Amino acid sequence: MLTLVGEEGGGTINKMENEFDSKLRIQSNSSSSSNNSNSNCNPQRSKSFVFRAPQENFSIQDFELGKIYGVGSYSKVVRAKKKDTGMVYAMKIMDKKFITKENKTAYVKLERIVLDQLDHPGVVQLFFTFQDTFSLWQFDDPVLTLNSEDMALESCEGGELFDQITRKGRLSEDDARFYAAEVVDALEYIHSMGLIHRDIKNLLLTEDGHIKIADFGSVKPMQDSRITVLPNAASDDKACTFVGTAAYVPPEVLNSSPATFGRPGAGPDGYASLKSHPFFKGIDWTNLRAGTPPKLALDPRVQSTSSEDQESSWNPSHVGDTSVNTNDGNGGYASASEAGSITRLASIDSFDSKWQQFLEPGESVLMISMVKKLQKLTNKKVQLILTNKPKLIYVDPAKLVVKGNIIWRHDPLLVRSRTFLTIAQFRKPKKVMSFEDAKQRALQWKKAIEALQNR
Ligand SMILES: Nc1ncnc2c1ncn2[C@@H]1O[C@H](COP(=O)(O)OP(=O)(O)OP(=O)(O)O)[C@@H](O)[C@H]1O
User: Fold this and answer.
1) 138 and 344 in contact (C-beta within 8 Å)?
2) pLDDT for the residue 440
3) Which UniProt keywords are listed (predicted)?
4) Which atom of ligand 1 sits closest to the CA of residue 212?
5) For atom 17 of ligand 1, which residue has the closest CA?
């Protein structure tokens, strides 16, 4: 049985979560006093800090949840439609216990405060936040409790720029210029606010195809920052701590120096010389966002992407299904019957810090499940973990040691039923492994692995 409470005792967890609350909760405006999530009003710069994006009393039940946009190191981002208003958001759901345990509270707080104060078309907008308690089931064991911190962000329906490059094979020079210009414009704004982002890896796209920068958890406010940063927010000015994602790290950080504004090529005169570079000839910097973006290449595996279709697929049970970008021929959503068979928040254990030790920095879990590894004589319970590296391992859940690293090639997967998944490893040592997933997600495992094979 996987229990969060059972491992450490409810008292400790409660203490941790209270600690989280006290660190995160800052006097906020209430929903009744504020209906201005879209306004440009300046936040109040005083001891009693007032958020522009209010802390609401909503619950996840107020939303229809759809596909999972992605899984970060300490969050899941899910498409969420508010039932009463019909507004669609990208809901960033974070487990408070996990964040507290991993000492990430300050980063969460910083992202919340910074996003609250940024206002630029190239930066993803924060609309509101709320806290919630989910009831979880695992293999029909008693209910578990997840206390979450949720941020309702502007939904970037165009997905990641990375996927556009993958689908198109390469960008034309004009398209590359367009995206580069929008990134430069957004970074100029971010830098003008006295912030260094430090983790520009997810360049997201709006439905129209304009760039949005997200994920401000690693942001570094400089001393003269125009952003109000409250006590307890992350500060590693002196320590030169490594923050960000290894593959995207700027050269100065690799040399153990602090991050600087210089990354994208801005010189001592700021962005002027960069923007007047011959590559950007013809770019109208003052009306950048009025330009026509490159046409988005749709995911060929998704048969229909109209909003209508997406909305008809809403089902709360998807929230626990981390089989991201799978080829289910159903617009990226599980069918109703598949969804029904997915335990609510089934893969919540992906938030459990004990699995994080098997990941490298920046690596995130795509699917995770307690399964039975079928062997000749005995069956063993193992934790099967699929990551975006991509990597597929199974771990002894009691000893917390990796028991196997499955190296796959093409077409090694066989689904015998909703429960049984067989994987053939063709590289040496050659072997065939079978797993039984009591949550009947064999097909989803297959699709998630195949999606990675096809990348
Ligand atoms: N506003 C958004 N709209 C659509 N998709 C989003 C949005 N924000 C994030 N995503 C997707 O969700 C994924 C997870 O985002 P998140 O910010 O939780 O973590 P991350 O930045 O990818 O990873 P890490 O936290 O490890 O740095 C992203 O990779 C992105 O694809």
Assistant:
1) no
2) 74
3) ATP-binding, Kinase, Nucleotide-binding, Serine/threonine-protein kinase, Transferase
4) 1
5) 215
